[in-house]
Design a protein that fits this description.
The complex is a heterodimer of chains A (about 190) and B (about 425).
Chain A (H helix, E strand, L loop, with lengths): L2 H22 L9 H14 L3 H18 L7 H33 L3 H42 L4 H27 L3
Chain B lengths: L1 E2 L1 H20 L2 H17 L10 E5 L3 E5 L3 E10 L4 E8 L6 E5 L2 E6 L4 E9 L4 E5 L2 E6 L5 E7 L3 E6 L19 E9 L5 E6 L11 H7 L3 E9 L2 E7 L13 H18 L3 E7 L3 E7 L2 H13 L9 H9 L6 E5 L5 H12 L3 E7 L1 H9 L7 H21 L3 E6 L5 H16 L2
Parallel strand pairs in B: 3-12, 16-17, 16-19, 19-20, 20-21
Antiparallel strand pairs in B: 1-11, 2-4, 4-8, 5-7, 5-10, 6-8, 9-12, 10-11, 13-15, 14-15, 17-18
Classes of the chains: A mainly alpha (about 190), B alpha+beta (about 425).
């Protein structure tokens, strides 16, 4: 299948499948249709080539999926399902963004030499995205597993559990702060 | 370094996940936060390398190009640091520059210490100075989460010279010759290469000038005499009055006048004549007659800078010609003849016994080229066109009394028209 047809059909199909799958695993909830509903926003954003709607739609879809499944009991299968759906959304999101970027670059010029370099970038980025997604998913599963079982899951008292969650949150906030500080330094 | 919107959304997801996790006491939100953070950690591998150092250099910083010619721009991109997966390079060009081949916007992948070349061809529709650059560079990671933009201030100055038409069959020479050597046959004895006559040998004559056949016949030494080849002075006067310019900024009577002046200067200088220049545009400037390549560059430089404008008193042109420029020069006026005062100056100079020639690009032809030749004219437009043509014909007829007038269709090459007029002038002069 040519690159144009894959951009035209495969990616919109991916953008439909991800929220459908999210809704399918959320059928136990009365709000199971939320991911489908919010999933329409990124699809429209992609078709209209508006990255704002694509970004916002994916973020809302992920949040709605987490919200719908908030009552789910913790188990390895559930953890894997949640992480898989989360990273499926991320994969579709970053692929769609890069495709939009390439489309924009391609429409800005009709020169063949530049199109060659765009095509090679197009080939390269897909591999990079999926490498990052798989590595991220693996790290996320390990981290979640460790967080749930080693510190929170083993303690039965709900107040201690709450305290640990707050401590964990504080540490995470601190890491985010350090990360932002590191990334904002241009030097 | 810039962070993209997905970065922001992922950060928001991580924070909101923590808040909602605490609020709903649900592990699933915490997994969302952890997943976002895990993705961030992985994505940090794609941060711009700390040793990101890309050096940009241009093949040259200054160049001269003739109007209509293509110019190849070469930019060297040297990676002095680690591998760069995505580097966007954008050479900023002024809007008048036209890209003929390649692109000023490219995406490169650079290995460690690799050098790549970026090439594209451009052309210029107008004369003048054009500055290319600066060059914008953008690094992006594969996920487009981070980007880094910077500029290379490497600029390139291009001087777009007027187009010079090569004339093979036309030699434009002044009627009056001066003492210095040139290519014009002076019809008198002097230094030259063409045989003129024979005379008796005088002491001091060069040995190689002795005509041995004639010496043998005469039994006394006879020397060859040659036709003197001299040169003259030509002054080009370019009319750049703003109110008389007809056409668009890229195609108008002034641009064609400038191109014609450059062509004439090149032709006249190639015959070893001296050429001077007076330009009447947004400023009044002149170049004193001289010969050689340097003079050609001086004239081209002045023509390149010429812009329409000005409200000069044409008496100044007369004063310049009388007091600064050599007498008995051929004065060539290059004008669309749309300003009556300019035509009157030509008449006055002609009456003052100046050797005058007028080269007039027809503004109507330029206008038709712009509008489209096949455009059907309305009745009032047809009448005004005819009136204008009659006025122009009468004016040209009047100017013919004082010198040669070349009524030139600027959509056609100059050489055939000039050749035709010069031939006509020669036959008209014969009794």
């Amino acid at each position: 299948m040519s690159s144009e047809s894959s951009e035209r059909f495969l990616l919109p199909i991916g953008l439909i499948i991800a929220p459908l799958l999210a809704s399918l695993v959320s059928l136990h909830s009365v709000y199971w249709f939320f991911p489908i509903l919010f999933g329409l926003v990124p699809l429209i954003g992609y078709l209209l080539k508006r990255s704002f709607f694509l970004d916002l739609g994916i973020a809302l879809s992920i949040l709605s999926f987490l919200f719908v499944n908030r009552g789910l009991t913790f188990s390895l299968v559930n953890l894997l399902t949640v992480v898989a759906v989360f990273f499926l959304f991320l994969a579709v999101w970053f692929t769609a963004r890069n495709v939009l970027l390439i489309k924009r670059m391609r429409s800005a010029q009709d020169d063949t030499s530049t199109l060659g370099s765009i095509a090679s970038y197009r080939k390269a980025f897909l591999g990079d995205i999926f490498k990052n997604i798989f590595a991220g998913a693996f790290l996320s599963i390990v981290a979640s597993f460790l967080a749930m079982y080693s510190s929170i899951g083993s303690i039965k008292s709900s107040s201690v559990q709450m305290l640990l969650i707050v401590a964990f949150s504080t540490v995470v906030f601190f890491i985010i702060y350090l990360m932002i500080k590191m990334l904002t330094s241009d030097a | 370094m810039k962070k993209s919107k997905p970065f922001l959304y992922l950060a928001v997801l991580a924070v909101v996940g923590l808040i909602l996790g605490n609020l709903f006491r649900s592990w699933i939100f915490l997994v969302g936060s952890i997943s976002s953070l895990a993705f961030f950690v992985i994505a940090t591998r794609s941060l711009p390398p700390e040793d990101l150092e890309v050096e940009i250099s241009r093949e040259s910083e200054e160049k001269e190009v003739y109007l209509g010619d293509e110019l190849k721009i070469k930019i060297n991109v040297e990676n002095k640091g680690g591998k760069v997966r995505f580097l966007e390079i954008y050479d900023l060009l002024p809007s008048i520059v036209e890209i003929e081949e390649g692109s000023n916007h490219q995406i490169l992948e650079l290995e460690k210490y690799e050098t790549k070349e970026m090439e594209y061809k451009i052309s210029f529709p107008v004369t003048g100075k054009v500055e290319l650059g600066p060059i914008e560079l953008k690094y992006k990671d594969p996920l487009s989460l981070f980007s880094k933009e910077w500029r290379s201030e490497k600029k390139m100055m291009i001087q777009v010279l007027p187009a010079v038409e090569e004339m093979q069959s036309v030699d434009l020479n002044p009627s009056f010759t001066k003492y210095w050597l040139g290519n014009i046959k002076s019809k008198s004895i002097g230094v030259g290469s063409e045989f003129f006559s024979l005379r008796e040998y005088h002491p001091g004559d060069q040995f190689r000038d002795i005509n041995w056949k004639a010496t043998a016949r005469n039994l006394s030494p006879i020397t060859n005499e040659y036709e003197g080849e001299k040169s003259g002075d030509v002054i080009l006067v370019v009319d750049g009055y703003h109110e008389g310019v007809v056409g668009t900024p890229h195609n108008n009577t002034l641009k064609t006048s400038i191109n014609a002046a450059a062509t004439l200067a090149s032709n006249i200088l190639s015959n070893r004549n001296r050429v001077g220049l007076i330009v009447l545009g947004d400023y009044l400037n002149w170049v004193f007659p001289q010969t050689g390549k340097n003079q050609f560059h001086r004239i081209m430089g002045n023509l390149t800078k010429l812009e329409s404008g000005g409200s000069w008193n044409l008496e100044e042109v007369k004063w310049l010609l009388k007091d600064f420029f050599p007498r008995r020069s051929l004065v060539i006026f290059i004008s669309p003849l749309t300003v009556p005062e300019f035509s009157e100056t030509i008449v006055n100079l002609g009456m003052d016994k100046y050797d005058v020639m007028v080269l007039s690009p027809d503004p109507l032809k330029i206008e038709k080229e712009i509008v489209g030749k096949d455009k059907e004219l309305e009745a009032h437009e047809e009448i005004s066109e005819r009136l204008y043509e009659t006025d122009r014909k009468n004016l040209i007829k009047r100017l013919w009394r004082y010198g040669v007038v070349v009524d030139w269709d600027p959509t056609e090459p100059l050489e055939p028209t000039l050749e035709e007029v010069l031939k006509y002038q020669k036959t008209a002069r014969k009794p």
